[in-house]
């Protein structure tokens, strides 16, 4: 016991030995474990990387192929007659006969109505008798002038009287001819303003005739559109009553309207059977150059951060945003230019990904003509992810 006490007293007097001993034990313990670098590597290996933590979204993709279609211009107009005229009375008198019915087809020269002759035949007979007298007088004055018994003044007066009677006869003959109202061209007697017994003065309306063959669709093109149009182009016409027709662009105005900055155009439609009417609202579709385009549903269109309209597609598992140009719209979709000959378009899930994102593309059977909704369908379908 005394011996242990002596050793403890000896160590208490020498504390540096205890410190050195503890240090030696710690060094030996640390040397027996793994190095710091190895520990860091082990810790790093146990923590998953950022790439491994990234969630890869799955999107539904359809491969669409380009087709060659015509770029078109759509205009709105109205059908109008090729020609329209209002017949007027050229002499005064009573309507004694009406031969053409309202709404009927009349041929060129066909009688519409007749005006009473009144005393025109009697005036003509009197003038014809007076003509013979003036002819005799002129012949006598001409002989006397040659013999030197009458001067040039008397001869001129006889000649003037003779020509005056001839002019009167021509006027009476025209008045008699004008009592018969005839159609100036073949068309539809759209309106008749007189009935038997009506009295008309010179200039009063008799009837209105419209030529509906060809039927004309008049529309107005903008400054950007007019440079792409030329006479002879084919135009498809859709009438408001559901009928379809095809015509030819026959006229383009060279001077624009100051108020609207538009140019009048005319499309002529064959209407021999008079099946189409004037005054109908219509839509013109004029084919321009042929180009390659891809048809998709409008629901697949998207906007980028700058507000550009485009389509999201997948290439090499990366989302790409492609700005596009709409060249034609139809009831079941729009035709786009800018996607090339083929594109893998995201049809489901495009609202959850952005350009540059890595995705897993799940291909569906291509269906060019089908309408595919994106964001509306994405609300009902859960996107799957993988670690």
Automatic annotation (TrEMBL):
Q: Where is the CusB-like beta-barrel domain?
A: 217-286
Domain named Multidrug resistance protein MdtA-like barrel-sandwich hybrid is located at 84-209
Gene Ontology cellular-component terms for this entry are:
efflux pump complex
Q: Which GO terms describe its molecular function?
A: efflux transmembrane transporter activity
Q: Which InterPro entries match?
A: Beta-barrel_RND_2, MdtA-like_BSH, RND_pump_MFP
* Recorded family membership: Belongs to the membrane fusion protein (MFP) (TC 8.A.1) family.
Protein name as annotated: Efflux transporter, RND family, MFP subunit
